[in-house]
Amino acid sequence: MPFGYVSPEQQMRDKADYARKGIARGRSVVVLQYEDGILFVAPNPSRALHKISEIYDKIGFAAVGRYNEFEALRLGGIRYADINGYTYARDDVTARGLANLYAQNLGQIFTESLKPFEVEIVVAEVGDSSDEDHIYRLTFDGSVFDEAGLVAMGGQAEAVAGRLKERYRDGLPLGEALEAALFALTEPGGERFPANQLEVAVLDRNRPHRKFLRLNGPRLERLLADGAPAAGPATTATKNESPLTAPETPGAPPTAPDGDIDTGSSG
Q: How is the chain split among helix, strand and coil, in percent rounded to 5?
């Protein structure tokens, strides 16, 4: 046996340990279903470097780990979605298809590269009902997990998930879902994150066309203050309209997904 030989099994274990340690250094991200869709919450004081983003009409993306690596995955997913939506139909772009694409890329990088990606990601798709929602979690080695209802990743993910399960139930209103997420992300005995240090977004099934919506500024502050939908009492919304739905300007083109600035920092 040549000097310095390392078995393939040991190489895989070393890569996995390396990736897990890198992911654990960041702060956790929580993704959970609520009554009108899917909620994303991440502690993130940066206004430019997003952990949570839109991929396509009804598909959202969340990630932890090394920013430049998961940003490359996000941009690749947007290109995939745009090409397939244009070539076939917009409804043909699904979270499952994106999850398969990411699984192949992450698995190939983990197997063939000396250094694996230090990332863990969630691809979520909101459906017409909660039964049609999908939340897929992908790990650094390309493994895919079809999560039911909620997921926590990054940082002390197991502890965060445990606290989240204490407060979570099916059909939570948005304010209560946000309260449960903040309870899970706050260390026992620690101070809660203020609104300006949180990144919060939803996939709201009641919004027309583009389901992704960022919650920030006064809207988020009101949700944090009283747990009520930011647009006011629910009685102001029609049966098929979410209180978060913003009025559309006739003839106005849809906005493009967020363009982040890559500095290579870790999330």
A: 40, 20, 40
CA triplet 110, 112, 114: central angle to 5 degrees? 75
Contact 101, 80 (CB under 8 A): yes
How many other CB atoms sit within 10 Å of the CB of residue 156?
15
Q: How far apart are the first and last CA of the chain?
A: 41
Query: Which residue bears the tokens 């919004």?
Result: 207
HEC sequence for 112-141: HCCCCCCEEEEEEECCCCHHHCEEEEECCC
Conformation bin of residue 149: beta by default, left when phi > 0, alpha when psi is -120 to 50: left
**Contact (CB, 8 A) for 30 and 172:** no
123-147 confidence digits (pLDDT tens): 999 999 999 999 999 999 999 999 9
pLDDT tens digits for 95-118?
A: 999 999 999 999 999 999 999 999
CA angle 134, 70, 223 (to 5 degrees): 60
Q: How many residues does the chain have?
A: 267
Strand partners, 30: 41, 152
pTM of the model: 0.83
Q: State how far the Cα of 97 lies from the Cα of 23, in Å rounded to an integer.
A: 24
Residue spans of alpha helices (H) in the chain: 8-24, 67-87, 95-112, 157-167, 174-185, 217-226
**Residue 76, number of CB atoms within 10 A of its CB:** 14
- Determine which helix (DSSP H) or strand (DSSP E) holds 147, and give its type and residue range: strand 144-147
| Secondary structure, 3-state, 66-115 | EHHHHHHHHHHHHHHHHHHHHHCCHHHCCHHHHHHHHHHHHHHHHHHCCC
Please list the residues that pair with 136 across neighbouring strands. 123, 146
